[in-house]
Design goal:
With 297 residues, the chain is α/β, with parallel strands linked by helices. β8 and β9 form a beta hairpin. The strands form 2 sheets. Strands 5-4-3-6-7-9-8 form a 7-stranded mixed beta sheet, sandwiched between helices. The protein starts with 9 loop residues before the first helix and ends in a 10-residue tail after the last strand. The longest helix has 15 residues. The protein has 2 domains: 64 residues; 190 residues, 3-Layer(aba) Sandwich (Rossmann fold).
Length: 297
């Protein structure tokens, strides 16, 4: 940035940062500049426009400069802020957890819609990460009970913090372990998961914001990206109650392959395939077939 003697207004700082981000190849450079500056100043974005001629104090200018440097190195804005929005709720995120995507909101909406049919539904979230799925569902399903599993203790700590923030921590059991291992012998009305589904080859071509910062084990699902589906789908049957459903987020273009896994390795039936706003098949809902795999307590 230019001379230390210069007094920067909100508008001049946004304009300078936008140009800087453009030169660094950052997408949506003005939006990024505004989000970071609003965060540093403790303002809403709209206040940047109503207070555009305000002088930015030196301490805030120094803090903003640090965030500019981080973003220019392609560190995701969500990690710089330490938070992100998901289904209109604010969640804490760090580099220990995946940044929630809008596509996953379709999974949660499908879960909530179906779980409302059962007042005291038992719901399992596999690979909970920062807890966005289980916490969002718990906010909308006051009588349900939840279990959230993850291999990462760091991720579970963040998920617990998010549950506490949204006052649903008393409804969720957080368990460390791999897939169904921590809930052996239990059965559920719903199992939901957003498994890792990036292939090894796809990983190499991802944007640096993803490849260099987000946790690889939360993204990469083996050579073709489908290893987690091959593990979850066959095991899910014995953990589902009569009428139970398994809801899975789908990678773009691989829905047919995952339906094939379900047809080959389980007797779960396809109840629905839900498309996102771009008409991509995004959520697969599998339901327990005629045979029962558990008894509701």
């Amino acid at each position: 940035m230019a001379s230390q003697q210069k007094q920067w207004t909100v508008l001049s700082l946004i304009d300078w940062t936008r140009q800087f981000f453009e030169n660094k190849g950052i997408e949506s450079p003005r939006l990024e500049a505004e989000v970071l500056l609003a965060h540093v100043l403790g303002w809403k974005r709209i206040e940047l426009y109503t207070k555009f001629d305000r002088i930015v104090p030196p301490d805030k200018l120094a803090e903003f400069k640090q965030s500019i440097v981080q973003r220019s190195e392609h560190r995701p804005t969500q990690y710089i802020l330490g938070k992100c929005e998901f289904l209109s709720l604010e969640f804490r995120v760090t580099e220990a957890v995946l940044i929630p995507r809008p596509e996953t909101e379709h999974l949660v909406e499908a879960l909530i819609e179906r779980a409302r049919e059962i007042a005291d539904a038992r719901i399992l979230d596999i690979g909970t990460g920062n807890g966005c799925i289980v916490v969002s569902a718990a906010k909308s399903l006051p009588m349900a009970e939840f279990w959230a599993v993850d291999l990462s203790e760091e991720a579970l700590e963040i998920a617990r913090e998010n549950a506490l923030r949204h006052e649903v921590d008393g409804k969720i059991h957080f368990l460390k372990g791999d897939l169904f291992e921590p809930v052996g012998g239990q059965t559920f009305d719903f199992i939901a998961s957003n498994p890792p589904y990036v292939s090894e080859a796809e990983w190499e071509g991802l944007a640096p914001e993803i490849r260099d910062f987000e946790p690889r084990n939360a993204l990469v699902g083996g050579a073709d990206g489908l290893d987690a589906y091959r593990k979850i789908i066959p095991q899910a049957e014995k953990f589902l109650l009569p009428g139970g459903r398994l809801l899975l987020e789908l990678p773009a273009g691989k829905a047919s392959q995952i339906r094939e896994i379900a047809a080959r390795f389980s007797s779960l039936e396809v109840e629905a395939v839900i498309r996102d706003y771009r008409k991509i098949e995004r959520v697969l809902v599998l339901a327990v077939a005629t045979k029962n795999y558990g008894c509701r307590e």
